[in-house]
Design a protein that fits this description.
Strand content: 5-15%
Number of domains: 2
Strand order of the largest sheet: 2-3-1-4
Structural class: alpha+beta
Number of helices: 11
Helix content: 55-70%
Radius of gyration: 23 Å
Length: 300
């Protein structure tokens, strides 16, 4: 009964954490577009970039179609592809992100005063800051297995079969969309700043996602190895390998737990192990790559 309860608590906590982070990422991304990029007549790529094209083409600040509405319509076409190609769980998170972002963008655009940050006349700062904040927001969403649609879905589909970075795929796709804005606004500066924004966005996303994928190898020596192994399996859903060892000084046999984890979950795991056995001997080291279930897929 206790074991089942622990599994339930750990699973609920992990689920709440995932959806909370996705929500935060979506709100950051929406704020970046509405309050940082849009006031400076910025331009970007992906589904949001297409929504911006529609906004400018229909009148812009003088009554253009709200970007939240166009964003939703564009992404509605991609939801089915996300479900069938990437998976149902990904599709559910994508649907949530798209709906929330459509609502957030529409509400923010209606409620937040235009040029609230005073960046309307500083297009370079708007592109750099907007790209950075948007990149941070999208990274939080992608780390939890979600997506905000558009170029993200394309990038994740390609990543499923080819080892090409997310940022590189988005960069190419977005450059095409940004370039198309010239035929609507006939503003070369807008196109150039759009490329600056997209480059900043891509670099930020790549740095964040690369850090999230870093892994660590942990060895644990403890008399309570059974309880620790159950803890790792039930609370962290990580595989455990039990090795036989011998203490050279004591000449006594001992059990050694080996587990591979993401670095971003290692600190919490170590604290839980120490709480269970304060005398546990633990070592942790970085590894170049981990390929297999729960980690990365090796691509030729």
């Amino acid at each position: 009964m206790t074991k089942k309860l622990n599994i339930s608590k750990g699973s609920v906590r992990q689920t709440v954490k995932e959806w909370t982070i996705i929500t935060l990422g979506v709100l950051l991304y929406s704020f970046a577009w509405v309050s940082i990029i849009l006031p400076a007549d910025g331009m970007g790529g992906g589904a949001t970039g297409i929504a911006m094209l529609v906004y400018y083409a229909t009148g812009g600040i003088d009554g253009g179609v709200p970007i939240g509405i166009s964003y939703f319509v564009v992404n509605a076409i991609l939801i089915t592809a996300a479900v069938f190609i990437i998976g149902a769980k990904f599709g559910i998170k994508t649907i949530y992100s798209i709906i929330l972002m459509s609502i957030a963008m529409s509400v923010m655009q209606a409620v937040i005063p235009n040029n609230i940050l005073g960046l309307a006349n500083d297009k370079l700062l708007s592109a750099l800051l907007g790209g950075g904040v948007a990149g941070l927001g999208i990274s939080l969403v992608l780390m939890q297995g979600g997506s905000t649609g558009g170029s993200d879905i394309i990038a994740m589909i390609i990543n499923k079969y080819r080892n090409i970075s997310y940022g590189r795929v988005v960069l190419v796709t977005d450059c095409i969309i940004i370039g198309a804005s010239y035929f609507i606004e006939h503003n070369l500066a807008q196109v150039i700043y759009g490329y600056v924004l997209t480059a900043t966005f891509s670099v930020t996303a790549d740095v964040m996602l690369a850090g999230n994928k870093q892994s660590a190898q942990i060895f644990v020596m403890s008399e309570h190895y059974k309880e620790i192994a159950d803890l790792i399996t039930n609370d962290f859903h990580r595989g455990v390998t039990l090795l036989d060892g011998t203490g050279w000084y004591t000449k006594k046999p001992t059990k050694v737990i080996m587990v591979m984890v993401r670095k971003n979950e290692s600190t919490y795991m170590l604290s839980k192990i120490k709480a269970l056995d304060s005398k546990a001997f633990i070592t942790m080291g970085s590894v170049m790559g981990v390929y297999g279930e729960g980690f990365d897929t090796f691509r030729k």
